[in-house]
Please model this.
Amino acid sequence: MNVHLPSAPKGPARIGIGGPVGSGKTALIERLLPALARRGIEVAVITNDLVTREDAERVRRSGLIDPGRVRAVEAGACPHTVIREDPTLNIAAAEDLEARYPGLDLILLESGGDNLASTFSLDLVDWWMFVIDVGQGDDIPRKRGPGIVQSDLLVINKLDLAPYVHVNADQVLTEAAGVRKGRALLGCACRPHGRAASDQADGIEAIIDLIVRDVLFTDIPAEVQGEA
Amino acid sequence: MILEHILGAVTDPWIAAPLHRLEHQDAVETVTLSREDMSRKRLRACTDKGTEVAIALDRASALFDGAVLLLDDRAAIVLRMEPEEWLCLRPRDLTEAISVGFFAGNLHWRVRFGDGQLQVALERERAVYLERLADRLADGRITLIDGDQP
Ligand SMILES: Nc1nc2c(ncn2[C@@H]2O[C@H](COP(=O)(O)OP(=O)(O)O)[C@@H](O)[C@H]2O)c(=O)[nH]1
Ligand SMILES: [Mg+2]
Model:
């Protein structure tokens, strides 16, 4: 009684990138784009800004991606509403991109930047990360906002700046691990000062490894369901 | 293995019979997910027998307790939701009922009502909730019900 079904038209995975303004969400996207391309992963980007299209324009002009694959959603006054309570604008933007670029593997969705309380609706994204940086103080993980505790991955960015803002990077990472209780946590430096942004110590590849494992599944051989 | 379809529910007649047969052969595996993970379309999980699976559904499908993700002559994979825990609170009087109801809503707690109680779904550690309720518990405005002690 085997059940043979065609591969489902499930479309690209959707990933949310949240975190306070200035923590490096757009910088991370700028680093992920070429690194994902090197692995043959087809990507599109949606940015959420309050009332401008600043981030979308920045990504379009970066030369890292076909500008048509970047959409802007204006969040209005409340950046968390459009990723949690009522994500319809973002869902529409994602569906638009999916229709226009059928080969997409992944859509990255940057939130407008919020406090530590922002979370993504799982109706909108499959998986989401929260980006904070060491410049916000070494006590940030201890503040345990929902973004820090509940995200699928917590990224602590700007590790290169730790010595200049009186922060012990190892200690922040250890404390964050304690708060996360086994959930994924990675440190990185998207734009390390005075270092080539492509060195192996910057943490970008580790972030992509996790995305591949948790939502892209390209490491799993395709097997027909019902023929295990 | 990537599971892309929900084939049906354990209670569907055409599934129940073969599933029952596979159960006797100890060939049914279960994936148990938290309520939060149940609302995902894509995730990686492990069955109770240690088989690693990836679930990747189309956006219109939704996981549910009792969903069957694999069914053939040799094996089946069934999805189960982790039982939820609820904190059961009885308010002392009407004034407190209104007050604690507003308080829970303000904190975005998921609640249900029943039996004169306000019941709060525990989506984080119990201590996090008890901490917020400490004042009310201390002066008896609310009481914890049913061996539901801190
Ligand atoms: N030194 C350093 N600066 C960074 C790093 N990542 C981002 N920045 C800078 O932080 C500022 C805010 O970054 P941006 O990506 O716009 O933050 P967003 O608001 O979260 O999107 C920019 O000036 C970036 O150049 C990093 O790893 N190290
Ligand atoms: Mg930005």
In short: Chain A has six helices and seven strands. Residues 32 and 62 of chain A are 12 Å apart (CA to CA).
